[in-house]
Structures are given as C-alpha cells and as structure tokens.
Amino acid sequence: ETGVTQTPRHLVMGMTNKKSLKCEQHLGHNAMYWYKQSAKKPLELMFVYNFKEQTENNSVPSRFSPECPNSSHLFLHLHTLQPEDSALYLCASSQAGEGGPGEQYFGPGTRLTVT
Amino acid sequence: GQNIDQPTEMTATEGAIVQINCTYQTSGFNGLFWYQQHAGEAPTFLSYNVLDGLEEKGRFSSFLSRSKGYSYLLLKELQMKDSASYLCAVRDSNYQLIWGAGTKLIIKP
Fold first, then answer.
1. Contacts of B33 in chain A (CB under 8 A)
2. What is the mean pLDDT of chain A?
3. Contact call for residues B91 and B33 (beta carbons, < 8 A)
C-alpha cells in the first residue's frame, strides 16, 4: 500500500470517447504529478501541481486535460486520443519544499489502450 | 539536452552482487534517486544521494560522484524477488526529475 490510489486500473477507449483518470493521495503531500510510461522509454512527466497550482505542462497535447480540485485529488481528462497514447499512466505525490529528498510516491497506474 | 544513461538489461545469479550504473548530464543537480519497479507495479523509492559518497540501506547501497556525473546502485545477496527494473532519476535545477529508461535486472537461480 503506497498511499496513492488510481482508478481505473485498466481502460480501453475508442478515439472518439471521453474518459477521466482519477488519483487520490492519502499522504498529506503538497505536490502531485501525472506521468506517462511507455515500454522501454523513460518516464515522461506530463503535469505537476504544487499546492493545487499547475506549475508544469511539458508540451502535452490538449487532448489531455488535468484537474486538481484539492491537494489530495488529481484527475486526467482524456478526449479524442490517438493509438500512440496507449501507455501506463502513473500518478505520484511528494512533499515539496521542506528539505529532505522529497521522494515521489507512485500509484499503481492506469493501463490505457486506445483503439 | 538532458540525458540519463543506464544499461537496458542485466543478468545476475541468486546470492551474488550486482552493480547498476547510471550516468547523467542535466541542467543543474539537486539530488539523484533510485527506484525499483516490479513488472506491472508502481515504482517504489529505494535511495537518494545528494552528496558524493556511498549511502547504505540494508542489502542496497547507492554511490554518487557529482564531478563525474555518475552513480551506481549496488545490490548484495541477490534474491529472486530483486528481479525488477531499476530506475535512475536526477532532480535538475528546476527541481524536476529527469528519468532514465530503467535497467531490467534478471536474477537466475
């Protein structure tokens, strides 16, 4: 149990569908992240929220839309995705800015397949 | 550009020792992390180095040389459950993590 949960664990969607991924952290952290993990590639940081404010958007296509309603919840809204968006989407949280390593804790991920 | 290099795959024998290397070129340096990721699972934090030298944590140790842009993760007394991918990540000057592609470690009996 890592303290970060994600739903759904698996998702198959067509290119015209709209779906949302949900992440919740129970660790009291102040920063949350969305990553994309494709086979044999480095983790790709998509979005960062510090204290609910989005501080990073690494040139992610607009078909991915994040939402952070509070410091414990993070959503990734998906619409009109492409087959190349099929990947494992990981959510993570950390305690930023208080000294220490500020290591990230990851959820189990959502395995997304776009057909 | 920023770059993290680590071997794609390594094989070792149960009970032995293995060293996984990581070299990096990043815009600034604010610490290096090692994570373990079992197949189909989330990455989990293993170790953190920000100063040169060796950090030991049970069977796992991590070494850092900032002048050489180099780190290694040393795993002793290998067990079958150590079969996993090991991810090296560097926190850059913007405090963002730059990740390597991971090293898949296969442990054989």
1. 101, 103
2. 90
3. yes
